[in-house]
Amino acid sequence: MKLGIIGLPNVGKSTLFNALTAAEIEAENYPFCTIEPNVGIVQVPDNRLYKLATLINPERIIPATIEFFDIAGLVRGASKGEGLGNKFLAHIREVTAIVHVVRCFENDNITHVEGSIDPINDIDIVNLELLLADLEVVNNRLGRVERSLKGDKSYKHEYELLNRLKESIEKEIPLRSLDLSYEERKLINGLGLLSLKPVLYVCNISEEDLLAGGDNKYIKSVREYAKKEGSEVIVASAQIEAEISQLEREAKEEFLKELGLKESGLDRLINASYNLLGLISFITGKVKEVRAWTIKKGTKAPQAAGKIHSDMERGFIRAEVINYADLLKAGSFANAKEKGLVRLEGKDYVIKDGDVVLFRFNV
After folding, report:
1. What's 270's DSSP letter?
2. d(CA 358, CA 320)
3. Which DSSP state fits 155?
4. What is the C-alpha separation between 92 and 9, in angstroms, rounded?
5. How do beta strands 199-204 and 97-103 pair?
6. ∠ at Cα 24 (90, 62), nearest 5°?
């Protein structure tokens, strides 16, 4: 699963990406500093692993991961090639979901590409460019379907759907706002429509605003905008997150405590991105490692086993499952089994977030 970090130039995208990946990517105060998308594999924060490690004492702890792409800043006219727009739009087309960073801070030393701080205007600029790119794709497909429809009536449903998409685009309504059925989404899946991708908005605020409670007039407007299209909003200070990312785990927790924060903005961002993609984690625990594995919600036990190794899915017999919290209370696997807390589940069992699982298989 890949998430693309987008936004106008100079909104803090690369600074946020640096913090996410603790990478040293250029983050300069001019447009198009980022041209090729930088890629980072980021650990999903999960304290459950460290608590389980106190019971198992493993050699290593391996969290789940999620992949982020830092995509260069879009500008007005990107859909027509402005600012290397075609290249950037192609990069967005490759990701599963979008993390849209919006500037919600004032700083005279950092140039705003549009000349003033207006997060809704910024969002509209980006969304319009995505919609214009989608309009071109929809029109091209509509033309082909219209010709095919003359000799094959089976294209009628797709023709009607494409016209519905075109109407939404022309009204400047992102396609993700539409209530599309599974069958309809499947029908247009190959088109790579940009405004159909789910979005998480990140309000990048100043250190002063964060310490003052993490709110300002700009954030309120973004929340209202996001609510209309069913998107989520995360508030973070990219500059502070960059500082936090350089600290070791214990020092990080102490620094957050001093700031009066329960978790970092990046932890909230990663978890929200994980949820945005409909992902959960199950856990395996043994002497060598305690590890979280990423699966889609609704995944059944054999397919979850296949995430570890294809042989485990092919030869699946059963799964021994216990809730993470129950295992902690029991104090050990042995105690949990004695108390009847470990369940035997078959091929139809749907894995839950936080399940600790031992798969039995034979190949």
Report:
1. H
2. 5
3. G
4. 15
5. parallel
6. 85
Residue 270's pLDDT is what?
86
> Packing angle between helix 13-21 and helix 265-276, nearest 10 degrees?
90
Mean pLDDT of the chain: 86
What does 108-146 look like in DSSP terms, one character per residue? TTS--TTSS--HHHHHHHHHHHHHHHHHHHHHHHHHHHH
Please, which pLDDT band fits residue 35 given cuts at 50, 70 and 90? very low
The pLDDT score that the predictor gives to residue 85 is: 47
For residues 48 and 63, give the distance between their C-alpha atoms in angstroms, rounded to a whole number: 10
Rg of the Cα atoms in the chain: 23
For residue range 83-104, list pLDDT tens digits in order.
444 566 788 888 999 999 999 9
How far apart, in whole angstroms, are the C-alpha atoms of residue 15 and residue 202? 13
Q: At which residue do the structure tokens 């009536």 appear?
A: 153
Query: How many other C-beta atoms are found inside a 10 Å radius of the C-beta of residue 113?
Result: 18
Helix or strand holding residue 230 (H, E): none
pTM of the entire predicted model = 0.82
Helix axes 119-149, 85-93, angle to 10 degrees: 70
| 189 neighbors 219 (Cβ within 8 angstroms) | no
Closest-CA residue to 349 (of 310, 314, 309, 322)? 322
Distance CA 71, CA 91 (A): 7
